[in-house]
Structure formats: C-alpha cells, structure tokens
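To whoever is on call:

I kicked off a structure prediction for a single chain this morning and the downstream step that reads the tokens threw a length-mismatch warning. I double-checked the sequence; it's 116 residues and nothing unusual in it as far as I can see. Pasting both halves so you can look.
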Amino acid sequence: MNVPTQVWVQTDVISGWAEEGDCLMCARTGVLVMWLGPVVGFGRSRPFHACEPCTTRLARWVRGAPPEPCAPTTSTHGVSADERRYDTAINSVAAVTIAGILSLTSTAAGLWLGAR
C-alpha cells in the first residue's frame, strides 16, 4: 500500500501538513494540498483540499484582509511593447537604407544613360 508522503507547510498565513493531490479551488492536479476540513451538504461529507496559494487567498478572505496586489501581467501576444518598438525602428532603418540605395542607383543609371 502506498501512503502519500506528507510535508509540513508554513507561510505567514497558514501552516499544516500537506500532501500531493488535487486542489478543489483552482482545479490543479498533482500539487501540494492541505486538508481544510470537511464540506457537508445534502447529508454527505467530503474532504476539502486546497493548494497553498488558494488556502492563503481563502484565509485572507475569511480574515477580511485586503486582497494582495496583482502580479505584473505578462504579454498575452508573445511580443512586448519594447520588442515591437525595436522591430519598428529596425524596419524604419531598413526602409531608409533601401530608399537611399534606390536613389543612388537611379542617379548612377541617369548619369550613365546621359553620358551616352
């Protein structure tokens, strides 16, 4: 019989034994979860497990503490604004360079054709 290994988890908000399982709040699987107590309803009872971030959020909500600030958002399109600005600058330099080369080529062709 395989007995899951338990780990002692302690943060500034919660502490207790945790084991690998499924978080019922965020639906992640295979994460360290803590047993928070039974959920009773309709004459049945089931254990309630939650991961550390969800348990912390629940404990702060129960205590009436203000929510933690959101983390900085990551780019959802895969390219940051700085990268787009850099690409735009490179494209502008390329366009000016190509226009200059075309101008020099047309001038050289005009001189060559005029000298004939």
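Update from on-call: the warning came from a stale cache, not from the record. Cleared it. Sanity check on the structure: The longest strand covers residues 31-41.
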